[in-house]
Amino acid sequence: MEHSLHLTVDGQEHTLVVDSRTTLLDALRDRLGVMSAKKGCDHGQCGACTVLVDGRRLNSCLALALTHDGAEVMTADGLAPEGELSTLHRAFLAHDAFQCGYCTPGQVCSAAGMLAEAADNAPSVVTEDLEGPVELSEEEIRERMSGNLCRCGAYVNIVAAVRRAAEESR
């Protein structure tokens, strides 16, 4: 059965008709031509499909599109409006935080969501001081980014890039 769906993706409004089983990832890629979110494992295990939905990180391959009717979806492309690279994009470039680049859009979206969570003082499993501001140590960044895999193993550079973006956004 098909239903109408309204999404704002990277600042542009879209109305589309999708089958009730369509994932948000498939709606983005197959229906809207938004290729920034990647289909990696299609099981929510790699994070290549990570996007921000209403400001929160989400594995779009696991989410049914219809459950996000009216949502604002931000992809890595949307974080760089009109070709202006965000602080995260620049940090990823400066630290060579990618190899093949396949996971990079998901890594960037996850990092953006993670930085917002840390700014809101949302603790992670490794957060030591639960009452003070979250300090983004290497261990903290690794824990918060653990849902995003990099087949090339650029983790050291990804952590350095996220740390730099965090420092620049203070």
Automatic annotation (TrEMBL):
GO terms for molecular function: 2 iron, 2 sulfur cluster binding; metal ion binding; oxidoreductase activity, acting on the aldehyde or oxo group of donors. Pfam families: Fer2, Fer2_2. InterPro entries: 2Fe-2S-bd, 2Fe-2S-bd_dom_sf, 2Fe-2S_ferredoxin-like_sf, 2Fe-2S_ferredoxin-type, 2Fe2S_fd_BS, Aldehyde_Oxdr_Iron-Sulfur, Beta-grasp_dom_sf. Pathway: Alkaloid degradation; nicotine degradation. Residues 3-79 form the 2Fe-2S ferredoxin-type domain. Gene3D superfamilies: 3.10.20.30, [2Fe-2S]-binding domain. The keyword Plastid does not apply. CDD domains: fer2 (cd00207). Keywords: 2Fe-2S, Iron, Iron-sulfur, Metal-binding, Oxidoreductase. It comes from the Bacteria. The keyword Iron applies. This is (2Fe-2S)-binding domain-containing protein. It comes from Brevibacterium linens.
